[in-house]
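Residues pack. Consider this:
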Amino acid sequence: MRVLRIVGAVALWIVNILAAAAFVAIGVAKFGLAEWAINFARWGYPDGFYMVIGALEIAGGVLLLVPRLSSYAASLLGAILIGAAATHALNNEAPRVAAPLMWLAVMTLIGVARRRRAWRPAIRTAPMPHGPGSLSEGGANQV
């Protein structure tokens, strides 16, 4: 069982690193390629919006490498990917919808895997007080 946990952790890190590299690269490309400005204008977005998306993709990619923040980064990138898929669908670019949806699945995997502790029920380590001063006895803590 321990081997499975280690393999799972290594696999998750590999996915995180590859996704981080991909999002940083695509975010940087938005600053360097005029094609992005042309596409965003064609899709009806305001001038400079491609740079905002690029900056968010770079930030999200970097934050994927921070375990405590990677689920939030996955959520941020997931929102961007939903917007990308919708943009392609609404602009009759159906073949281009698949890539954002595939990356959305990857972000969902990362988000769920990194937040799995939040899904576990809380474990009570100390019994609830029932003596003098407790809420059940009508003591000083009573509101």
Remarks:
- Residues 16-115 form one domain.
